[in-house]
What does this fold into?
Amino acid sequence: EIVLTQSPEFQSVTPKEKVTITCRASQTIGSSLHWYQQKPRQSPKLLIKYASQSMSGVPSRFSGSGSGTDFTLTINSLEAEDAATYYCHQSSSLPFTFGPGTKVDIK
Amino acid sequence: EVQLMESGGGLVQPGGSLRLSCSVSGSTCNNCALNWVRQAPGQGLEWVAGISDSGGTTFYADSVKGRLTISRDNSKNTLFLQMTSLRAEDTAIYYCAQSWEWAYFDNWGQGTLVTVSS
It folds into this structure.
């Protein structure tokens, strides 16, 4: 099973600040890495597919990068509505696995 | 766009059974699998099971293999999860999620809560 680790676990950020979340896979997964945003009491929402492809309707301040084992989700100029938990997910091999999540709080 | 709506959650005793359903509506998708993903209270996401668009291929997480069974009825646009021998650690919100070609989960339902407790 491929294990995904995320850092940091928690980040408290001021609006307009830049946020960087990293996801590391226990073995190489190419670009089969996807990012989700989950707000309290809501279902997860797909933000980025295949490491760097933004989904339609996702604000341009969200971007993804990386390949192999190391990946990054960047939120440029954080807005209050971005308060959420962010998860990475690998689809390179079964079982599909998720990272433990990174909670982003607004100061 | 696809809409997914789960139902069937509730309180069940340890060792009991429950059947979840997920109604699928909206635009159809070829090469789309359907999955169950769960989230224990205050915890992260865990993929549980997936089924191909035809229903001919299924996959399971080791933690549920032999106890949970995924199936689908394409004539009724419905996904199922038959849950047996339930344990306290199965307590979670169960989400139905569509995945394109066994990759990313691009559509999610609102979830249904399953509580296993005596």
